[in-house]
Design goal:
Main location: membrane
Membrane topology: Multi-pass membrane protein
Structural class: mainly alpha
Pfam families: UPF0014
Number of helices: 10
Family: Belongs to the UPF0014 family.
Oligomer: single chain
Distance between the termini: 43 Å
Order of helices and strands: HHHHHHHHHH
Keywords: Membrane, Transmembrane, Transmembrane helix
Shape: globular
């Protein structure tokens, strides 16, 4: 893509801002900031990846993945700001999800052990898992608000926190996984996913692009299940105060 073609894509940003102004949505600042940040961040990571791909230093690969997990945990944790220690639990969950899925991909030789494969696929896994984690926290917050009385009654009757949360946590886990599996049902019919589209635009054969997209979809289904189930397990005790009352988990401010 030429610099001119890239600059011309700003017309889509201008259209969005004009629509916001016309409809008095007040999103102009957010659109402008988001546009600048996205461009700067992507160019920076592009130069970083260029350097990492050339050096092939394993320490740099680990550092980049650790950075992805840290940012993802911080972002997903915004859904439950009032829960102490929630971001640490999210980071641990993302780390385990990444280790399990990437470990299998490499040990089974499904992908090559090179930065060109490890970093992009890790980004897809961690990004998708971050969304699942955020959906779980949002669903769990709603579940706790709706079933607060029932949960506290169970606790007063001697139930453990895990027993009291069993049904609410189960519903939250299912709710967080639904978008991933709904996407699998319609992929190729409603949308052509990003990796597949990118490969085709770059000149790859459509069937080869499909093979990689199937790989990614299957990996994301596993990572969604691991993330949701593990997060439901490791956060069980965080939803209660020391007095055994259900915390209010929504975002502060």
């Amino acid at each position: 893509m030429s610099n001119w073609a890239l600059a011309a894509t700003l017309v889509f940003v201008l259209v969005t801002m004009l629509l916001s102004i016309r409809r008095k949505l007040g999103l102009e600042k957010e659109i402008a900031v988001g546009t600048v940040r996205a461009a700067v961040q992507l160019f920076l990571i592009g130069y970083v990846l260029h350097f990492v791909f050339d050096t092939r230093n394993p320490a740099l690969i680990v550092l980049i993945i650790a950075g992805m997990i840290t940012v993802a945990a911080f972002n997903a944790g915004k859904r439950a700001d009032r829960i102490p220690g929630i971001r640490l639990r999210i980071a641990a969950t993302l780390l385990v999800t990444e280790a399990l899925t990437m470990g299998l991909l490499l040990s089974l030789r499904i992908i090559e052990a090179t930065p060109q494969y490890i970093i992009p696929v890790s980004g897809i896994i961690i990004g998708s898992s971050m969304i699942v984690a955020g959906l779980f926290l949002s669903a769990m917050t709603r579940e706790l608000e709706a079933a607060r009385g029932e949960i506290e009654a169970l606790l007063s009757l001697g139930a453990t926190t895990r027993q009291a949360l069993r049904h609410s946590a189960g519903r939250a886990v299912r709710s967080s996984m639904i978008p991933t599996f709904d996407g699998m049902k319609t992929v190729g019919l409603v949308q052509l996913p990003g990796m597949m589209t990118g490969m085709i635009v770059a000149g790859a054969e459509p069937i080869e692009a499909v093979r990689y997209q199937i790989l990614i979809m299957f990996v994301l289904s596993a990572s969604a299940a691991i993330t949701a189930i593990m997060l439901g397990t490791v956060t069980a005790g965080l939803w209660f105060t020391a007095e055994g009352m259900v915390r209010r988990a929504g975002r502060q401010g």
